[in-house]
């Protein structure tokens, strides 16, 4: 009898898994116009438990990472070092982004079609970013970029959970905060429409890309300090180059916008009368070198596409040229 119960339970679980995969396939192929469909995160089961637990832990660990807990007298030494919080945050990000990719395109496949299908998924950027950051020391800008990436990934769920509280806040707003009521009502109205949610995603995506680019600039400045790390600098700028090429080809252009904005800010400083001319010349040299690297990678991608290789081969050719002698 016990054997029959176990057999029936196994059959039931297999049927539920097959039904879940069928729903995934139907939603992916239901008239998306060639665009990636939103990830289908299960609402119950082990996968949902892992996803929601890591999601909550990641935001909690980010707060603990920012707080100077070790400075608290007497009990400060009892708290874990902030670097442990940083590493655990990255591990949670790896799990969440990995599940996000799995729920969007299914199981990993070692072919060009699968690689091309995942390059435009937001979760892939967070996954690669977490891998690049794992061997490095903690950086606040990088941790913020990870967090903003996951805000974009889960924007729909976050908006759905925040909107009821927004209505309660508007209904019970104290008189001293009445001047902020029109702005709050405007935000609440914006988040009630798909276009407003898309604006919310775009805003956080711009902030995330800006944090990634600023982190790259910070690593260049860090070359003047004893904490410099040439290997991490190389990996980070290779990651930014890949992000730029992918975002220009299949994305929204947020990375390019972040580079242009930062270039205008730095150029306004280097061209100032109080700034030494050698700094402006050095920045111009670095900027021209990076432009040449991106243009060569894009030309290689266009040559591969003309030869039938496509976008994936351009990424492969770029990755194969990443060597350290």
Write the layout of secondary structure elements.
Layout: H1 2-28, H2 46-66, H3 82-105, H4 112-118, H5 122-133, H6 140-153, H7 155-171, H8 181-190, H9 194-221, H10 230-250, H11 254-270, H12 277-306, H13 310-320
Rg over alpha carbons: 23 Å
Helix/sheet category? mainly alpha
Globally, the shape reads: globular
Number of helices: 13
User: How do the helices and strands follow one another from N- to C-terminus?
Assistant: HHHHHHHHHHHHH
Q: How much helicity do the residues have?
A: over 70%
Beta-strand percentage range = under 5%
- The low-pLDDT segments are 1-7, 23-37, 318-325
Span between termini: 66 Å
* Overall mean pLDDT: 76
Sheet bearing the most strands, described? none
How many β strands by DSSP?
Answer: 0
Structure notes:
This protein has helices spanning 2-28, 46-66, 82-105, 112-118, 122-133, 140-153, 155-171, 181-190, 194-221, 230-250, 254-270, 277-306, 310-320. The longest helix has 30 residues, at 277-306. It is built from 13 helices and no strands. With 325 residues, the chain is an all-alpha fold. 20% of the residues are buried.
Q: Which features characterize this protein?
A:
single chain, 325 residues, mainly alpha, 13 helices, disordered C terminus
Short description:
This protein has helices at residues 2-28, 46-66, 82-105, 112-118, 122-133, 140-153, 155-171, 181-190, 194-221, 230-250, 254-270, 277-306, 310-320.
